[in-house]
């Protein structure tokens, strides 16, 4: 059976954070999820900790790592129509986190949504700029911006220079 969503987590030496994220995912109201951890050569206990959860671990060599490549590798293993990108150092605060992130995708005109994140903005990271093209919006950002949580339709999940087709959703 196809899961409701596939969650792709990119990791490198995240032993301090990964258990909290995976525990939070396991406590969600949406339970039929596929969790894919793309690890780029962690030398700490990240993979060992993740292996205690129902997670598919995909390993890539550190020298093959780019943000886009690791996400593409994870998405290529996704079985669901919806893919949630989650950084290994974030965690859900509420048990209906996935439910709220995925609900806008019931509208076929929505290709991507994103969730509120509480953290300080690191220095030297540019602000995200939105521009409208036709009936959709394009999210333009520098290639090094990391999205903490972002679900999308698998059909639009192709990462290169981090330009994605999306519609902005507000609740």
Task: Write down the CATH topology.
Answer: Spore Coat Polysaccharide Biosynthesis Protein SpsA, Chain A
Number of DSSP strand runs: 8
Name of the CATH class: Alpha Beta
* Contiguous uncertain segments of 5+ residues: 119-148, 159-171
The rounded Rg comes to 15 Å
Shape: globular
Approximately how much helix is present in the residues? 10-25%
> How many domains would you count in the coordinates?
1
- The string of secondary-structure elements, in order, is EHEHEHEHEEEE
Mean pLDDT over the residues? 75
CATH 4th-level superfamily: Spore Coat Polysaccharide Biosynthesis Protein SpsA, Chain A
CATH architecture: Alpha-Beta Complex
Query: What is the topology, as strand order, of the major beta sheet?
Result: 3-2-1-4-7
Strand % is 25-35%
What can you see in these coordinates?
By secondary structure, the chain is of the alpha/beta class. It has a single domain, classed as Spore Coat Polysaccharide Biosynthesis Protein SpsA, Chain A (Alpha-Beta Complex). The protein is 18% helix and 25% strand. It is built from 4 helices and 8 strands. The chain has helices at 18-26, 46-50, 67-76, 97-102; strands at residues 5-11, 33-39, 55-59, 82-87, 129-133, 136-140, 149-153, 164-166. The strands form 2 sheets. It has a 5-stranded mixed β-sheet with strand order 3-2-1-4-7. The protein has a 3-stranded antiparallel β-sheet with strand order 5-6-8, with no helix packed on it. Helix 1 (18-26) links the parallel strand 1 (5-11) and strand 2. The radius of gyration is 15 Å and the shape is globular. The two termini are 31 Å apart. The relative contact order is 0.21.
